[in-house]
Amino acid sequence: MYKSMKDIKSAMERKNIPFWQAVCEEDCKETGISPEESFAKMAAMYKAMQDSDAEYDETLRSESGLVGTEGALLRRAREQGKLISGDFIGTVMEKALRIAESNACMKRIVAAPTAGSCGVVPAVLNSLKEARNLSDEEMTKALFVAAGVGGVIASRASLAGAEGGCQAEIGAASAMAAAAMVFLLGGDADMIDNAAAIAMKGLLGLVCDPVAGLVEVPCVKRNVLGAVNAVTSADMVMAGVTSRIPADEVFDAMRTVGRCMHEDLRETGKGGLAATPTGMKIASRFE
Predict the structure, then answer these.
(1) Do 166 and 121 touch, CB atoms closer than 8 A?
(2) Which of 40, 51, 90, 148 has the fewest CB atoms within 10 Å around its CB?
(3) Averaged over 204-208, what is the pLDDT?
(4) Pairwise CA distance, residues 147 & 154, whole Å
(5) Does 70 have pLDDT greater than 90?
(6) With 0-12 CB in 10 A as exposed, 13-18 as middle and 19+ as buried, what is 7?
(7) What does the pLDDT average to over 99-126?
């Protein structure tokens, strides 16, 4: 696992290979498998992401009854032209909600990088695939890019809400998705770095405050936030906007911010939205 975006870019330059391949080769080195096996495993993950979207059941609600069916509301609003944000962003929002709801309803998802943030990466990638008619091979390469960024975040900071707050879950997923989107749009390594940095900066300090300790409220709808943040971050980069702070330093700042967070704001269900009168009333129903 690479410990910095700088290391990935150095490997790219030294071997004259693309970003995704540098990540793939590192995976092969760590796991002892061939490039073909590594690619096949990643392709299977992307297929599972597609399935988690396609197999959404708009009639299901979670066991708690707190989430479910709202992905269908977005679909209908989008199809009726009611969303001011437009069709592409509307599709991203819908898919993020569908997949995150599926997680809460115990259907099959891909933790990317966590179950609580499972809707972000597939929402962005699946929407872009449909919009640009991209191949599964290109999507698999994009997942390697996302995985490379996620690996760096895991190494320099954390991917656990219990350790770093929701910036470590939705924030990390958003950075991964933004990087993957820029790759698919033809961006180079520096642009991938900028996209990851901008996406993470936008969600820096996001707390983890699950109501009743369940990965449902506000977790599911935060997937929409993370996915849309990824798209806008990628769009800025493709327009020529850069991050004044490089991604590695942003991830270091994320680690510091996470350590400064009170434990009530790190997945304990004790602070933030979980501590509101309504949040506590909901929690009391499950005691």
Answers:
(1) no
(2) 40
(3) 98
(4) 10
(5) yes
(6) middle
(7) 98
218 neighbors 110 (Cβ within 8 angstroms): no
Cβ–Cβ under 8 Å, residues 245 and 195: no
Nearest alpha carbon to residue 160 among 211, 201, 194, 208: 208
With beta carbons less than 8 A apart as the criterion, state whether 145 and 180 touch: yes
In degrees, rounded to 5, the angle at the alpha carbon of residue 186 between the alpha carbons of residues 114 and 48 is: 35
Tokens 């936008």, residue?
Answer: 202
pLDDT at site 50: 98
Going from the C-alpha of 22 to that of each of 26, 132, 141, 158, the distances in angstroms are 6, 25, 11, 22
User: What's the mean pLDDT in 121-130?
Assistant: 98
Mean pLDDT for the chain overall: 98
In this model, does residue 97 exceed pLDDT 90? yes
Residue 203 to residue 168: CA distance in whole angstroms: 9
State the average pLDDT over residues 226-231.
98
Plot region of 137 (φ>0 → left; ψ -120 to 50 → alpha; else → beta): alpha
Distance CA 155, CA 249 (A): 13
- What separation in angstroms does the CA of 8 have from each of 5, 19, 147, 149, 256? 5, 7, 12, 9, 23
**Model pTM greater than 0.85?**
yes
Task: Provide CB contacts within 8 A for 155, sequence distance 6+.
Answer: 1, 2, 3, 4
Q: Determine contact, residues 121/196, Cβ cutoff 8 Å.
A: no
> For residue 287, what pLDDT is reported?
83
| Amino acid of residue 128 | L
Q: What is the CATH number of domain 5-284?
A: 1.10.4100
Domain boundaries, the chain: 5-284
